Amino acid sequence: MDKRKRNMKKKFFSYLPSEIMTEILSRVPAQTTLSCKCVCKTWRDLVSTQDFAKLHLSKSIPGLALTVKMDKIIEITNDLHVSTITKLNYTHTASRYECIDGSADGLLLLNINGEHDQLYLCNPITREYIDLCHPTKSPEYIIYGFGVSKISGLYKVVSIEIEYGSWKNECKVYTVGTGLWRSVAPSTHLTYMTRLDHGEFVNGSLHWFARDSNDTQRISCFDLETELFNTFSPPLQFEKRYPNVFLTALEGSLCFCDCTSNDYTITIWLMKEYGVDKSWTKEFVIHSEHNSFPIRLSKDEVILMDYESNSLFYYSCKNKTSQRICNLDRLACLPVSYTPSLLSLESFGTENSIRWIGSFP
User: Fold this and answer.
1) How far apart are the first and last CA of the chain?
2) CA-CA distances (angstroms) from residue 211 to 149, 159, 274?
3) Would you tell me how many other CB atoms lie within 10 Å of the CB of residue 340?
C-alpha cells in the first residue's frame, strides 16, 4: 500500500502542468527552493533560470539581514523568526568585522572593516560573492550605498570618500557586471553626518543625512539612473551638528526618524511626495521604554533596536506596547532591509571571478 501511494505521488508531479509547478515553487522560501533542485532534473533546470529567480523575487517576503561578528549572516523574517542564512568563511577576517552597507533584491553589500575596507557583493542564499576591489587613496572616511536604477535596472555600488575639515569629497560608482569603478561628479559643499553610514535606497536613489557650507542640514540624494546628486530639506533642523537621526523607508517612501528626545520618544516623518519638502508628514510618535531606534517600519508595527543591549523589540502602533524579540549577541552591524532571492551573480556576465562564501547552517 505504501509503495502504491509513493507511485501515485510520483505520477501526480509528473503530470502536473509546468506553469502550475512553477507557481508552486515560486512561493517556497528561497533556501528551501534551492533544495528542490536536488529532487529531479526538471526542477533543477527550472529553479536555475533567471526568469524563475525574478518570479520568485516578486513573491519573496521582505525581512531584515545582519551580521554577527566574525561568524554569520542572520535573517529576521517578516514573522520575526530569527535564523542563520549562511556562515562566513572569508580568508581575510582576522581582527575585522563585517558590516552590511546596502541591500537590493537579495544581494548584500558586505564591508569587511579593517585597516582598509574590503567590499564584497554577495547573495547569501546562493553563497556567491564578488570581490569589488575598491580603489582608494585611504581617505579619513568612506560611506557606501547600493541599489538598482529604476529604468535600466542596473545594480550599482556607490562610495563617497570624505576628508574631514574640508568640503571636498570624491564619488565612485561600480556597475555590477563591468568589474570597474568610475569617478563621477561629487556632491558639492556637503559634509555627511548620518550615524548610519550606508545610503538609504528609496525610489531608485541613495540618501544620506548631510549639512551644507551654511550649516543647514540637508538630505543628499544620488540618482542611480542619472548618476547625479541632488538635495532636499529634512522635516526639521537641529541645533546639534550631529543629531541622533536616521533615514529609512516605509512601503517605498522615504522616512526621517528623529531620536533626539531625552525621554526616548521617537518621531517618524514620511515624505508623501518624493523630493517635495512640503510633503513631510508626521507619521508616528513612539514612546519607547528603551534607548532605541527604528530598523523596520510598517503601518501597524515598528521593530526597534536597543542601543545598550543590542536587543530587538516589537512595537505595536495600535496598542502602543513593546515586546522583546531577541538579543543579538556579538552584533557586528545594524540590520538592513532584506528580501531573500535566487538572483545569481553569474547572470551579470563579464565580472570579477565569482566565488562561494561560507556554508549553509
Assistant:
1) 37
2) 25, 18, 20
3) 24
Give the three cell numbers for residue 204. Answer: 531608485
The amino acid at residue 214 is N
Integer-rounded Cα Rg, in Å, for the chain is 22
Please name the residues in contact with 210: beta carbons below 8 A apart, sequence gap of 6 or more.
187, 190, 191, 192, 193, 194, 217, 218, 219, 220, 231
**Alpha carbon distance 356, 62 (integer Å):** 24
The pLDDT tens digits along the chain (361 residues) read 465 555 555 555 566 777 888 888 888 888 888 888 877 888 888 888 889 899 989 999 888 887 776 567 877 777 777 777 777 665 554 445 678 889 999 999 988 765 556 888 989 888 888 888 876 666 667 889 999 999 999 999 999 888 766 677 889 999 998 888 999 988 878 888 755 568 999 999 999 988 888 888 899 999 999 999 999 999 988 877 677 788 888 878 898 888 888 888 888 899 999 989 999 999 888 887 777 777 777 777 777 776 666 777 777 777 777 777 777 666 656 778 889 999 988 888 755 566 766 544 4
CB 131 within 8 A of CB 176: no
Contacts 24+ apart (CB under 8 A), 113-119: 117/142, 118/92, 119/144, 119/157
Count other C-beta atoms under 10 Å from residue 323's C-beta.
11
Supply 174's cell numbers: 561600480
Backbone angles phi, psi at 246, to 5 degrees: -140, 155
CA 211, CA 236: separation in Å to the nearest integer? 13
| 183 within 8 A of 174, measured Cβ to Cβ | no
Grid cell for residue 123: 547573495
C-alpha cell at 179: 568589474
What's the pTM? 0.86
Please give the distance of CA 184 from its chain centroid, rounded to a whole number. 23
> Rounded distance, CA 86 to CA 72, Å?
6
Taking the C-alpha atoms of residue 343 and residue 323, their distance in angstroms, rounded to an integer, is: 34
